[in-house]
Amino acid sequence: MTRRIVVALLALTVVLVAAAAVPLGLSITQREHLAFRDKAQAATRVIAASAEEYLSDRAPADAMNTDLSNAEKAGDCAAVYDANGRLVAATQCQAAQVPEAHELAAETLTGREPEPPETDGRLLAAEPVGTFRQPDGAVVLARSATPLDTRIAATWAWIGLVAVAGIAASALVSVRLARWVNRPLTTLDAAAHKLGEGQLGERATVSGGPPEVRRLAATFNTMAARTEALIHGHQAVIADVSHQLRTPLAALRLRLDLLATATPESEPELLASAQEELARLSRLVDGLLAVARAEQAVPKPVPVRAGEVAADRVAAWEPVARERGIHLVSHCPDAHPAALGKGDLEQVLDNLLANALEAVPDGGTVTIDSTSVSGALRVRVADDGPGMTPEARAVAFHRFGNPKARGSGLGLAIVHRLITANGGTIALEDTPGGGLTVVLDLPRWHGRRTP
């Protein structure tokens, strides 16, 4: 990836530098040529002006000779011709020695303005003496193009140097940029590889790089943490399930071993004990399945009348309570419906009533009541049993959290998962006078009320 980024940025830089440097160099070269020709033409006009005084006005040739001398000192070669094309005056390095000079002078004397040619490293410039249509003579000047070529070469050298420096700077920046982008991605890739190999505690430590890569690393770390917690949770569940199933299975195997060697008189008692262990094992498996279903369920809220559901569950559990002389009471007035998954409140109340009836001694009381609180419907299931210690309440919502529980230890875990999945809350409090109260805050239904 680093190589691709560097190559792409370098290619882009070369294209941009070429697109900017080449037109700039050509433009500067053209301006230098024009300026060089204009200066040569201006020097030729100066000599043509003094030559006009000599050829047209019959003035002395001193001014013309002075201008020719100045031109020679400047490194130019100049020649003055009369109207017949005869050489009148010239510098020591005569421009007439250049083959094209005589032709240029003859063309100028015909009244035309020729294009100054450049030959043998020299630029020729011609200027008529007098008017263009009827010139009294012509001046031809030859100027060396070496200074022009030197300036142009220097200009192209500076442009090339700047271009190379720009490309080098671009290469340095592109390498640093590629490493800045690629380093956190390499770290993230290594962390993902280790996580895939089973190192669940691996995290991507990314402190630099683009914000998008840092956000990706944070998302990866969150995913890795959740994956680790999920796998560890499953391992803990398997360990808990294995531990919880070991006891009833061992007891059942013991009962069956005794049954195999028992006398006919003790067979009914041993068979009853084995059936009791089977029932216990069945309840434990059913509880585990209920927890699994509760954790995987995504409830779709529907309006639920808590009073109707409470009255229905009280009526269902009434025979069990009557058998032990327990008073089972419901005080749930008709209130605003709660928003819960279909059948969730029934399952919650069944688990709470089963726990309460098992904990309450004969002749005790279990009460269900409901009130409206701010933004929620509060349902309370209270009993006057032995209650729970603070330590037991702290782990009551965990699977098998209370080792002293009489049942499977899964009822409150199921209730907690169902309530929280529906957006509600659950809390355990002491019942005034002794016992345990389960407080459920259920979200209210805000949709259209059903008839």
In short:
The chain is an alpha+beta fold. The protein has helices at residues 2-55, 62-73, 99-109, 146-196, 211-260, 267-296, 306-323, 344-359, 390-394, 411-421; strands at residues 77-82, 87-90, 118-119, 122-130, 135-144, 301-304, 327-331, 338-341, 365-373, 376-383, 425-430, 436-443.
Report on the architecture of this protein.
The strands form three sheets. Strands 2-1-5-4-3 form a five-stranded antiparallel sheet, with helices on both faces. Strands 7-9-10-12-11 form a five-stranded mixed sheet, with helices on one face. A two-stranded antiparallel ribbon has the order 6-8. 28% of the residues are buried. The protein contains ten helices and twelve strands. It has three domains: 2-150, PAS domain (Beta-Lactamase), CATH 3.30.450; 211-291, Orthogonal Bundle (Helix Hairpins), CATH 1.10.287; 300-443, 2-Layer Sandwich (Heat Shock Protein 90), CATH 3.30.565. Strand 9 (365-373) and strand 10 form a beta hairpin. It has helices at 2-55, 62-73, 99-109, 146-196, 211-260, 267-296, 306-323, 344-359, 390-394, 411-421; strands at residues 77-82, 87-90, 118-119, 122-130, 135-144, 301-304, 327-331, 338-341, 365-373, 376-383, 425-430, 436-443. It is α+β, with helices and mostly antiparallel strands and 451 residues long.
